[in-house]
Amino acid sequence: MGILLTKVNIQNFRSIESLSLDLGVSNLLIGQNNSGKTNFLRAINIALSGSADVSGDDIYIAQGENLDKNKTAIIDIMLQPVDEDNQIEDSFNEFWTSVFTTDWINTRSEGDFVGIRTIIEYDEVRDTYSIKRQRILQWAENGIAATVENRRVAFNEDMRIYMQTHYLDANRDIVEDLRNRRSYFARVTSSYDISDDTRREIEQQLSAVNNTIVNSIPTLRQTKERISAIGEIIGEPSSNVEIEPLARKLSDLNRGMDIIIQSGSAASFPISQHGSGTRSWISFLTLAAFVENQKETLIKSENAELFFVLSMEEPEAHLHPQAQRQLFEQIYSFSGQKIVSTHSPYVVAQSDLRNIVYFSMRNGITSAIRYENNSLDEQKIYRDIISARAELLFASAIIFCEGITEELVLPIYFREYFGCSSSSLGVSFISVGGKDNYKSFLSIAKQFDIPWFIFGDGEIEAKRAVGAAVWEIHGIDIRNTQIPEVVILDDGDNYESYLIHAGYSELIIQAICEIENDNEFFDNYVTTRHGLPRKRNRPNRNYIHENGKLEALIDLLSESKTKYCERYNKVIQKWQSRVYQKWKQIEPPSMKNDKGCIIVNRRTQ
Fold first, then answer.
1. 35, 215, 444, 483: which could join 361 in a potential S-S bond, CB 3.0 to 4.6 Å?
2. What contacts 12, CB < 8 A, 6 or more positions away?
3. 82 with 51: CB under 8 angstroms?
């Protein structure tokens, strides 16, 4: 690649008050809607492209603040030399040294770099906002403390040619591109690297085909003869009028182009009759073709190097899940640096953990965190979370539970208690798949500063597992410190036994018999299963003692958790339940309990 955009500092740009981020070759931006991902992509595009399309809307304004025309937005970027494996090197190669020249290159003990500051400021003379650039002499991680050269500096011609950024928003559509002569499709299809003789030969053939079409179709021939009379009106009887079914010149050929797709033995259809997903993705593929064409042309003619940055919003837009999985490889085969935002857990599941950058917005201010390696097993995190439960990375808060039963039923109580669905508030219920898996999930929540809660079983081993995970990840001993994020059921109870001991056994039995369509189902279960052995060397079943019926119900629910849980929980939710007394201990972000008190979530310090 030759060079890489490695660091970005942004101050006062749109929703970004202050943000510093390291970038790699591939960068996947995730987070909820309106968290600032698009603003970050726009900042990168402005800093690299020379775009002057800026306004007062690009200046960050705090709540209650009025826009001061003296306030500016600053975007600092660092470019560093890299080898073929994209590892940072000490100095730029000969080509990039000739491109940047000493006007831009800074030498330091850690290695050479090019630092570019882009300032968005109000221009009093023009009464509008504009940009100016300055050379950064000494980089600072917080941006404000960076040392810059006071004079204004512009990109030289070589920088404009060999350093390019391409931004694709979520509204891309190849049908619109076909009609736009400035689109990537039009630019790549109007570029012909052929000899003049070949061009003349093709244009002669196009002219001959045009004449054949017009002369062979009576209506076209008659129309041509009629409109040729225009020469008499304009005073030019010898003027020539032609009808062109096809473009006669190669430079005009792309004006009438269309894209036709045929699937298997089905009929062919133009791209305009295909769905938005296909049209959106072909728009990206034409950009890839444009970039490859430019790269090959410049390398062939000048032996030059090119640096491309692809900034792209939501590549998964309008595509079904299987296609979303497949598009990942096409994105990451793109020739250049990639900065891509997504809302798709399927796309995230294909990514390397180190490529993920988590965006969030709190109190109107954007923050971003890049995944960093830690002491935990990354393969386990990828397998258990990223590959299987990546949707939790898009949550405003996560409630962890041990098993699938709780994941299915807790949203029922959430809706009943808060009067709205958990999804409407961005709250996700996630089963960690066993008491020993909390640690990996808590690690990811801490890494990206996502508010979290645990609704845990009261069994001794389950309590120990929760306590060990919270201690290792957050350094909090929940045996001695009660925290609102962790709610544990009564000693010895799991979720099912808690409901039974809370007095809801008859309602649960009623729901089970309704599902089985047999009013005697539970009684028959007690009769036929009494005395049978249990697993894991536990004592044989004994259902004839005082609490035998409750014991049988606990066994039945343990054997068929997912089969019955949704029905009996819907029955129970109609009643004032002791479950709610536990549930009230959990509050999602910015929600009040029944006393009007807000529970403040503990966050990473």
1. 35
2. 18, 59, 60, 71, 72, 73, 74
3. no
